[in-house]
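User: Hi! I'm working on a homework problem where we have to compare a predicted structure to a textbook description. Could you give me the structure for the chain below?
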Amino acid sequence: MAVFCTICWLVGFDQSIGDYLYFNGIGWDELPKDTELANLQNVGINTTADVINRFSISASATLFSHEGAGHQIKVNKAGVSDTASLLFQSNWSGCAEMGLNGSNNWSLKISPDGSTWQDALSFDAASGAVSGVSVQSGPTDTTEGRLMRADYGYGPGNVVGTVAQVGGVPAGAVIESGSTVDGNYTKFADGSLICTSMVISLDVNVSAGALFKSTLQTWTYPSVFITAPTVGGGNVSDVENLWITAGQAGVADCSAVAFGHASATGASFTLMAIGRWF
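Assistant: Happy to help. Predicted structure tokens:
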């Protein structure tokens, strides 16, 4: 007959076999040996495990600590279309899930009811690019609370650069400026374009009755307008008036005539044209 030195009401030590036993509710059984713990069918700690949740814990917290260096928690799946994730529930209803949800792209899914799900964030495994309902869907998407994509928004890296448009929607920088032999230009993302000429020199020496005028001179805009712009100018030197004739719609040049009460050689003026590039 076994003799027990009881440690507690569930565990005892069998002196005849030199081992600990535990009470299973009906009788006493030996505690599992180390070798018998390698392939347990399921384990429940303070709760019941089952064929789906083979390792189940009911506690205020669960600690996974290191043994001298780092510590990894690994969730492995069999194939690309399978799922390896962490599921967060409220009263056993799914609210959020993050991980490899049906692909090798990392995603964060959210649900208001445990049955309807949407990808809030998804990171492409190859490029790292982000998408999802929490991110801008396009350049014109200004939905409140969404994250701005670098290629859809503006910042220090793309405020100044090359402007562009797709179907009338800005697709490049906010401001573009430059110069050619014909002058300077500034283009804006909304389609506005301002061109200014270099100083143009004219000889006001052609007699026209009581006045003198210059020969016509063509100004090629430093950047092309989509329609005829509004053109104006001003005197740089001794010329009383300036007459400007803009080019036709879509033509990137204009003509100007300066005139005064006396002839002048090398009269100078500048031009400005304001219009649209799209």
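For your comparison, note the following. Residues 1-9 have pLDDT under 50 and may be disordered. The chain has no helices and 24 strands. Good luck with the assignment!
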